[in-house]
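Ticket closed. Logging final result for Aminotransferase.
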Amino acid sequence: MEEKQEVEVIHSWSAPRSLSTSLMYSFAQRDDIEVLDEPLYANFLRVMAVERPYREELLSKMDSDGNRVVEEVIFGPGEKRYRFCKHIAKQRVPGLTNDLMKRGKHFILIRNPLHILPSFDKVVPPSFLELGLADLVSIYSELCELGRAPPIIDAEDLQQDPEAVLRGLCKDLDIPFQASMLKWDAGPKPVDGLWAPWWYHNVHKSTCFKPAREFPTPLPSSLYDLLEQSLPFYNILRRKTRGTFAMSGSSLPPPPLPVPANEKILIWVGNEIVPRDSAKVSVFDSVVQGGDAVWEGLRVYSGKIFKLDEHLDRLFDSAKALAFINVPTRKEVKQAIFKTLISNGMFDNAHIRLTLTRGKKVTSGMSPAFNLYGCTLIVLAEWKPPVYDNSGGITLVTATTRRNSPNNLDSKIHHNNLLNNILAKVEGNLAKADDAIMLDKDGYVSETNATNIFLVKKGSVLTPHADYCLPGITRATVMELVVKENLVLQERRISLSEFHTADEVWTTGTMGELTPVVMIDGRVIGNGEVGPVTLRLQNAYKNMTADLGVPIPMYPKA
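Final structure:
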């Protein structure tokens, strides 16, 4: 018999029916580990007065003093280097010593409650308390506060690629991976708790982690409300897993954000402010069903929203043109914008994507007659500097995709159905240009896929008619500045060759402000540098944004 020694404890926390027993069997195959099956179970039954078919037998055979179990059983000496403790989250009841969380290494195993509930229901009627998903979130938060953020693995990922997930988990726990963890013998195990005959029937048939069923077990309607209550807690933890798998089966690590500070922003959706990862609309919403929504882009400068009223005018005009009903009031939209900015502490260098959808439908389908819930308002504010190089300039190519004609879809409606623009942007991306020029049906320049466009020729400023292009608010502002700067302004049809041979070209839009263009279709514009008229108007625009705008309430003025 091996001599007793101090062991390093590995705590596994999960909800019931989450493959936790399979994972316990996996760790039990190692030559350097001993396992404990729910050592705090008796304490849980005693403290919470929970009924189980085996309650009395368990209380008579298992120590129900939780703190004694923690000290003498969980952290007591052992014969192996490691001790694996399988814990069910709800069994961490009040009164347990803080040592349980402060000592050892912890990880969390999660499983979608859609798969847990039908399985649990076969043994014990499930409840929110019985599932313990809120307890799992609490455990995660407490460990993070202790500076010991635990790795999280998902049972579905474990089934899909057990070796990869176990290797990753072992790496996170700083223990060597052993290939023996991938298989075990079928049948009951000496490490099983005495409750095994009630709960372990299926796992006793297993010899490894098997792929999940192709199709889930039907969810009884009686469990629908419980699923709805539980899913948010699962999703909180799911977003923290060490790696998720796409439908294709490939690993999808989280991509870096252009502005890292936007990872933790608050977004207005419907009638509430929610964290970024919780900001979602219904799959029945018209914006999902058919791009049926209108939108605006706004910028925040030094505690003020530039051209707010002009943008709201266009938003409500677009909603009216599309015959939206139950539209929020102008005051309600403004309040949502202000509350979102203030909640995020965004008072400068921020961009707002304001979206108003026709709202949620009672059933899927195109008809607006199905929209009986009222409009959905989305206020997405991000830390976002101008998206183009306004100092060195950008390059454009001409897309083969033509701008929509008013005969088909009037560009004066600022709608979310942007496939026309997106197809042009795809062409620009493939050509490695910053954006793409779009022509109208007659071959004249309309705009780019994302902005309005201007040129300078022999001292005159020209811009296309707003027949096929959106009459942008930044466009109108720059046209106003051109006049104020005593420059000649012409609004007319402009051919592509006129842009190729222009002295200067720039684009305008809320996202990028006033952006110089230095090359179009391989032709250098002017001398390839930012021109004097462009610089002059950039400065005038900067001064205007510093002076004008609707103040944000509670802006902390210097």
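The longest helix spans residues 532-547. No further action required.
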